[in-house]
Write a structure and sequence with these properties.
seven-stranded mixed β-sheet; 28% strand; alpha/beta; single chain
Length: 372
């Protein structure tokens, strides 16, 4: 039998919210709902240590899970987990931050397997930055990066062993000083076993962590024919045409629509703001180079493209032979695979300026993901 403990007894002061952060909506659902759903299928018992003032709201979220119940929270995380451990019925216990809603089924199952094989399983990631030890505001030591890991949850253990460690910590008066279960287990039982975590399994700690993990933007651009040249440029591909597109830059109407979609999704200004047609620097500019600057701008917002979809409305020239080349160029510029870039081309059934062959309109949507 497996017991999952989801500590929810904090107030989330660092977020600045007036309510417990695990009750805060995230993409339409309270944060706690995601962790409950993730563990409901893998655990036989769900215990949620919480504050009295949050108990009623949390119990409402537990209604779909008959094997879930609240327990009394403590003044610290360790005390809350200790209360839950005294009621746990499973022979394996998994402890997971209620404010870490992006945990996956794969992580939970790997944690369980680690406990079955080694007696413990602590979700972790290798450090990607150099880590230092400090003293009095100065670097005191630099441990080799290959032995430094950051610890996540879930953390799983044989219940009797973890319960024994907690009793020993309580007796020694050290229980409040521990920030997670792995530290207590390491101090009083044995070095716990690590297993690979996932970067997306992040904890919601500050208000900005509650920003949407994904954002959608829409962009549209139109250019008229009339330039004296025998090609147009779409996604950096030169396509034979009776005339070119009028524009201050190279007239790559497809890239312009994509740029606006990216900027819109990031909550930034449109391309006219960043690349005004009154600025001589952008006269005849390569739009693929301008796209690089847009990628830099959204990168500063800790965002990156996840998917882009483009629809080109053009009566002429015929675009189908060039779609794959356009996808290849655009996917490379956006650091996406071609399967994550969609480009469709159609006519306007002879209607309007597009149907009359006087111009081209492109609509684009962009889905951005957070990179931090």
């Amino acid at each position: 039998m497996i017991t999952a403990i989801l500590p929810a007894g904090g107030s989330g002061e660092r977020t600045g919210f007036s309510e417990n952060k695990i009750l805060r909506p995230l993409n339409g659902l309270p944060v706690l709902s995601y962790s409950l759903s993730a563990f409901a299928e893998e655990a036989d018992e769900l215990l949620i240590p919480c504050r009295k003032e949050d108990e009623e709201a949390i119990k409402k979220l537990l209604l779909p899970y008959p094997h879930a119940r609240t327990v009394e929270g403590g003044a610290t995380r360790a005390e809350s987990v200790f209360h839950a451990l005294q009621e746990a019925k499973g022979d394996i216990v998994l402890v997971h931050d209620a404010a870490r809603p992006f945990v996956t089924k794969n992580i939970i199952q790997n944690c369980i397997e680690s406990v079955k094989k080694y007696g413990s399983g602590v979700c972790s990631l290798p450090a990607t930055d150099t880590t230092v030890l400090a003293r009095d505001g100065c670097i005191a030591a630099v441990p080799p990066r290959n032995i430094v890991f950051t610890v996540q949850t879930p953390q799983g253990f044989l219940t009797d062993a973890l319960r024994s460690a907690f009793y020993q910590a309580q007796a020694a008066g050290t229980l409040p000083s521990f920030t997670d279960e792995s530290g207590i287990y390491a101090q009083y039982v044995a070095p716990p076993r690590l297993f690979p975590g996932e970067k997306g399994n992040r904890k919601l700690t500050f208000a900005e962590d509650f920003l949407p993990a994904e954002r959608v933007g829409f962009g549209v651009d139109t250019h008229a024919f009339g330039k004296e040249q025998d090609y147009i440029t779409l996604a950096g591909v030169k396509i034979p045409s009776k005339s070119g597109l009028l524009a201050h830059s190279d007239g790559d109407v497809l890239v312009h629509a994509v740029m606006d979609a990216l900027l819109s999704a990031a909550g930034l200004r449109d391309i006219g703001y960043y690349f005004p047609d009154t600025d001589a620097r952008f006269s005849g500019a390569d739009s693929m180079e301008l796209l690089k600057e847009v990628m830099r701008l959204i990168g500063e917002q800790h965002l990156a493209p996840k998917n882009v979809s483009v629809s080109v409305l053009a009566e002429r020239p015929r675009l189908s032979p060039y779609i794959e080349a356009m996808k290849a160029n655009l996917s490379a510029a956006l650091s996406l695979s071609p399967s994550e870039v969609g480009i469709a081309a159609g006519t306007n059934e002879k209607l309007g300026y597009v149907g009359e062959g006087r111009g081209i309109t492109v609509c684009a949507t962009a889905l951005l993901k957070r990179t931090d």
